[in-house]
Amino acid sequence: MRSVPAVILMSAASAVSAAAAPDFAEDVRPILARRCFACHAGEMRMGELDLRTPESIVKGGSKGPAVTAGSPDASLLYRRIIDQSMPLGEEKVSADEAVVIRGWIEHGLAPVPPASEAQPAASAAPEPARPRIAHWAFTPPERPAVPEPAEKGWAKTPVDAFIKSALEQNGITPAPPADRRTWLRRAHFILTGLPPTPAEAEAFLADESPEAYDRLIDDLLDRPAYGERWARHWLDVVRYAESNGYERDGAKPHAWRYRDYVIEAFQKDKPFDRFLTEQLAGDELEGADAESQIATTFLRLGTWDDEPADPRVDRYDQLDDVLGVASTTFLGLTIRCARCHDHKFEPFSQKDYYRLLAVFEPLKRPQDKRRDLDRLVGAEGELAAYRTAMEKADQAVGRLKRDIGKTRQAILDRLFEKAPGGPEDLSFLNHAETVLAFRKDEKQRSDRQKELVEKFETQLDTAILREASGEEAAKLGEWNQRVEAIEASRPAEPPRAYIWFEDTSIPPVTRLFARGDTTQPADVVFPSTPAVLGRVPLDPDERPMYSTGRRLALARWMTAPGNPLVARVIVNRIWQWYFGEGLVASENDFGVAGERPSDPELLDYLATELRQSGWSLKHLHRLIAKSAAFRLSSQWDEAAAARSMNKRLVWRWQPRRLEAEAVRDSMLAISGSLNTKRGGPSIFPELPQAVLDGQSRPGLGWETSEAAEADRRSVYIFIKRSVAVPELEMLDSPDTTSSCEHRRVSITGPQALTFLNGDFTHAQAERLAGRLLREAGTDRPSQVRLAFQLALNRPPTADQQQEALRFLEKQALQVMAETSAPDAQAEANLRALQAFCLVLLNMNEFFYLS
Amino acid sequence: MAIPFKPKAGRRATRLACGETRREFLWQAGGGFAGTALTYLLAQDGFFGAQARAASRTAGGAEAASPLAPKQPHFEARAKRCIFLFMYGGGSQVDTFDPKPELNRRHGEPMPDFDADPLLAMRRSRLGGLLGSTRTFKKYGESGIEVSDLYPNVASKIDDIAVIRGTYADSFAHGSGLLQMNTGFIRQGHPSVGSWVTYGLGTENQDLPAYVVLLDHRGGPISGPPNWSSGFMPATYQGTQFRSTGDPILHLEPPEGVSREQQRQQLDLLSKFDDLPGGAAGPESDELEARIASYELAFRMQQSAPEAVDLSSETQATKNLYGLDRKVTEKFGRNCLIARRLVERGVRFVQVYSGGGHGDDTWDAHGDVDSNHELHCAETDLPMAGLLSDLHSRGLLEDTLVVWAGEFGRTPTSQNTLGRDHSPRGFSTWIAGGGVKGGQAVGATDDFGYKAVENTVHVHDLHATILHLMGLDHTLLTYFHGGRDMRLTDVHGRVVRELLA
């Protein structure tokens, strides 16, 4: 539908060099979008003028064509800008921007972009604006054919076909399948982060039907524990923490609602495109509600210095955090490195950084000086209804209180008439200060006045009730009842959430900062995706009433069919959370300097499969968890290892240490004390004083929870940036200042000390010993057998059984020798059993997932 | 205290070891988009991947043996270990190491060009006119460097000390200021100097932590552990809090009622349980063995850590040297003495805090600079002088670096009549010991002692110099994180040559 006369294009070519001509899509449209689209685009065409395309601009509105090619001064669009009659309001088109528009008209409106009404740019598939660099990850995945391995019958899901073919090509025989017990534990830990109970193990081992494996996977995916486990993985990536860091390290109010949101999203298998969109722009979605708004807490989880050295630098540090986490989490790109200069290793220019920054620049932080604030969330209608109901109730209560006040005043006046100077028990009213305090409106009383009122209120009420006539008493009674009724019927307050906000559809100006220095603003930039990814403009034609819609446009681009990265990045993470390492081993870096996928076809198969399944993560789970690959044993084979070297093929299960949370939760589960309560505000387990002593105000912000609360799963523990829970920190809980792609595994002396001597492990060892006594009685061999079943889902070997019994005997004798208690033997046996339980909870086999 | 096992992060951390120069060269040669394309081509060739793999393979030798095994520095180190004395709260330069007669002469007058510094102007309402110092300064030692009467004992060591009068930092606030002095950045999340040093050099005594932090008896500094965090590096490199009384390390001792003999039996049972028939195979075997070893290490630490803080073998003379016989110096003196014992035993980096908690429990002299500093100087003066003497007489000073610094200095203007506000624009720090040219004052602040104006030394420069003295090139000591090679000094830092012997 190009209707621009050819003569215009020719005049452009002849008048000036093409290089100097502003480009409509890249230069002009963003200005118009920002300044004019609110009134002259889409549905909203004031004066019938639509400024979205060169065609519609030439066509113009009720006043005729908006531009005359080659003659800016004869163009209505330009004249209105220059005389500042447009846009309405205070924000005018800047001089720089006017120059761009003038240049575009002067150059004959060229070149005309291929944009058309039917395909608004922001939601379209990314069209390359300039030739792309042919990096694999910047090209959309195409669905590969599922290969057919030579060995039939090995593959259980299509995943296996890829794995097995790759192994065959490299002459590698995969390890035999793991035994049922090993696989059972693996499945439980991977999917729920908890060990199977002995009863669950017995049931599974006894079920010989071929469907037993798949049934178990389906069962585990349905459990709340699955949501809790997998949400924790996600929280690593999004740098989740509940305090701000820095001097005061204040709590982020209601940040925990985001944690619950993530748990529920995994639990209910929220489609990933929706999950992504809500986190980036849940407030900009049509039909935004409390849930989708809470999701945007994602953007605000970073550290925050409430007393910044330089507020302006700090503002851009905050936005850098938001940009960084959004681009890393969903795109697997390190665009953040281009803040001060073009990226050294990646094809991202500094301009790309600031174009992306423009997406987040409209965000405002709710704060009252150093106080960090949250916001009420809910659907627009809900919030409006809430506010209306509250106002109505306020008004009604106000009216009643006025009536009550008048009547009381009349009674009071009578009292004073009867006893000039006031009755004895009301002598306090002789003081002018007190009388004034009572007369003053409730809300306007000073602290001193409040104090006085509180002090004498009861006395006054008694006297008034005594003096009231029957009619007055009845009226007062009725009014008071009505007040109570209204108060009782006030609507419940909607949830609050820890989110940023936008409150206008007019975006701020974003400028590139030379060398990243906020005192050196340079070119104005407009929101778009990086050039290498098509430079898709992110200023939407249609905007929400109170926001720019830029984040939503970004989310739409990310989830649009042509996006090369988003699906690959998430399926790679899912793979990583199964096998310990992604198909792309640099899970947060899909750029040129990142690692290359070990199996590009498998990666693309999973990525396209995810999309085809309607972005169902549980679908991916089933493909992976039900595979033969997931059943491989960890059996070592030198030849296979040598052939697989550097190719990172999956031919065996690579054992790895459980994450800190899984270790802690499992100890609680085994000792029989895990509290499975779900959701809600975070918990504060008791910490050793030595840990709190590291704070400048020891214990501040750590109000220890009651014992039962402290026994909940680790995902519910409050994450405070200046205080670490030793048993989690020692096992490498993630750094929360930026996205954690991969848990580290460090092994240190202090770590062993914490699990050998720490209060937490000791408490669990004691509880486990108590459980053994209850469930296995005082017979030592039975105790040992049950302990192994609980902790490792297997009986002890004969050697282990013997060693354990010898140990129990020795320890008991030692305790006996030292104690003089009357029931010394029982006490000694118990203490020995506790010592044995502690050993069990420290075993490699317990810490490692094989 | 490290275990023979290489942390996962090393995979990416090591990959740049030698690729760096070539890649940098190519980048510069190509420039702009062409450079990007070149980078891309290299990646197509598997250049980066190959580098990574090569690096981790060569790392299979000595380096992979243990992340904290002693490592060769980049060049010959002048100092093998470092004691960092941190004066938390921010000491006043014009009352200690930076005499300003002009300030005293113009006491009470408004500071000229006050509003020229926007950040100072922002705090204007809090600040009064120029506040002269009430301290008396005297020349000390052969060098004749002036030091105030607050620090007579330290002053007696001035010929060993290089005072840096033109130090400056970026933040007016404690939180970010502390972070910067400790990690180089005012944003949270970066490794501290001690972490960088142990990452670069490992440690000499595997039975003690490589990097120890001794806090003031009144509490921790603002922000707490992020000040000695390893940031994006593995926890292996983070500072370990050591307490001078009770258990020096968290969870060091078994709970009451568990004897050492019982614990030994537990460890024996554990190692039997962990002993796999035929041994473990595959890459995980290193880890599993490391875990087994970690329990033995823990058991050894139960002896070595208490021994390190047990002062009973020290002579009374030594104790007196640190002021352990006086109430005012006893607590800080004990930490200084422990610091010496730790470095003597091979600990690489020790940080000792003066000041803890808030307000006048720290050097944060908003109310009355004299009364505040009289306390904190009295607490630290003798112990620090004692530390320098003791290190010297044991032959340790020549290869031990001692650093004295707070997060910033204080304004020459008054606050609350007698107090001074924070000021990062110019303040004094000092270094002494291994490789340091003592008996000199480098750099200067303006006439009022407000702003560093001559031979200025940013925190990055101080850090670069510390690393240099320890044999590390601050531009080469990198850790790959978030898409780029991170450094202690970011993209800044210069080694202050004048400070070197």
How would you characterize the overall build of this protein?
Chain A is mostly helical and about 850 residues long. Among the domains of chain A are: about 5-115; about 270-380 and about 495-540, no CATH class; about 395-495, no CATH class; about 655-750, no CATH class; about 760-850. Chain A contains 34 helices and ten strands. In chain A, strands 1-2 form a two-stranded antiparallel ribbon. A two-stranded antiparallel sheet of chain A has the order 3-4. In chain A, a hairpin with a 2-residue loop joins strand 3 (about 365-370) and strand 4. In chain A, helix 30 (about 760-775) packs across helix 31 (about 780-790). The longest helix of chain A has about 40 residues, at about 380-420. Residues about 1-20 and about 110-130 of chain A have low confidence and may be disordered. Chain B has 16 helices and 17 strands. Chain B folds into three domains: about 10-65, no CATH class; about 80-250 and about 300-500, Alkaline Phosphatase, subunit A; about 260-300. Chain B is globular and about 80 Å long. In chain B, about 35% of the residues lie in helices and about 15% in strands. With about 500 residues, chain B is an alpha/beta fold. In chain B, strand 13 (about 445) and strand 14 form a beta hairpin. Chain B has helices at about 10-15, 20-30, 30-45, 45-60, 60-65, 100-105, 120, 150-155, 175-185, 195-200, 260-275, 285-310, 315-320, 325-345, 370-395, 460-470, and strands spanning about 80-85, 135-140, 145-150, 160-170, 210-215, 240, 350-355, 400-405, 410, 420-425, 425-435, 440, 445, 450-455, 455-460, 480, 485. In chain B, strands 1, 4, 5, 6, 7, 8, 11, 12 and 15 form a nine-stranded mixed beta sheet that branches. Chain B has a two-stranded antiparallel sheet with strand order 2-3. The chains are: A mainly alpha (about 850), B alpha/beta (about 500). At the A-B interface, helix 14, strand 9, helix 29, helix 32 and helix 33 of A face helix 3, helix 4, helix 9, helix 11 and helix 12 of B.
